[in-house]
Every structure is written in C-alpha cells, then in structure tokens.
Design a protein that fits this description.
By secondary structure, this protein is mostly helical. It has a two-stranded antiparallel ribbon. The protein has five helices and two strands. The longest helix is centred in the first third of the chain and has 29 residues, at 14-42.
Length: 137
C-alpha cells in the first residue's frame, strides 16, 4: 500500500510526490541554465537573465504537466444521500437567528425551483406550517 501524505489539502503518494519534484527540477533547472548561458552570451546579460528566468518558469509548467499526466490523483470521492434527520433543527436555528422565513410557496417560481433542487422545499413548508400552528395556539 502506498504511503499517502496530505500536501496543501490534497492527498498524494509520497513516491509520486518525490517523482514529481524530480521531474520539475529535471526540466526547469536545465531549461534555465541552458537558456541563461545562451542569452547572456548572445546579448545583454541582464536581459538574458530575465529571459532565462522566463524559460525556467515555462520549464516548471512543463514539468507540472508531465507529472500530472504520469501521476493520477489518489483521492476517492464518494457520494451519499444527505442526512435529512437534522434539517428541521437547522431550519429552527436559522429562524431563531434571522426571524421567520415565511411561506416558501410565496417565493418566485425560479427561487422555488432552486429550493426544490436542494431538497429543502418540503422541509421549509413543514417548518412554516408548524410555526403557524404554534402561533395560533
């Protein structure tokens, strides 16, 4: 089983990380050194160093692309149904903090569709009806 590490909130294989660093160095450093030598001998040395740095940055990008092609992501993404048990509790907390949300059926149709797509429409109606019953008592 590979040794997995977390780097910048992403999961990586330690061997692939070392390989990617080696590829980056192996592409960027020679690109910089060769272009630095070429540009400084053929013209203005200060301008040549600037161009060489630019070529080195391009080498870094090429190294990153090569590493991205060679080493695929290690993360596993799983999807699951949302836990609906606590929706009413969360809606109650929102109502306590911001006040009554009103009847979701009074909203514009486009907003209602968005709320339905999130799976919250029925929960909001239930919350509104429960609060209306509580206010009448």
């Amino acid at each position: 089983m590979p040794q997995l590490l977390e780097v910048w909130n992403d999961t990586v294989d330690s061997k692939h990380l070392i390989g990617s660093i080696a590829i980056g160095i192996g592409v960027a450093v020679p690109a910089f050194l060769i272009s630095d030598h070429f540009f400084t001998t053929t013209g203005d040395p200060e301008l040549g160093h600037s161009y060489a740095l630019l070529i080195g940055i391009v080498g870094c990008i090429i190294g990153a692309v090569i590493s991205g092609i060679l080493f695929k992501p290690k993360r596993v993404i799983t999807e699951s149904e949302a836990d609906t048990r606590n929706r009413q509790e969360v809606i109650d907390e929102v109502v306590e903090e911001y006040g009554d949300l009103g009847d979701p059926r009074d909203l514009k149709p486009a907003v209602q569709e968005e709320i339905r797509a999130l799976g919250l429409f029925d929960a909001l109606i239930e919350n509104h009806e429960n609060r209306a019953k509580g206010a009448q008592l």
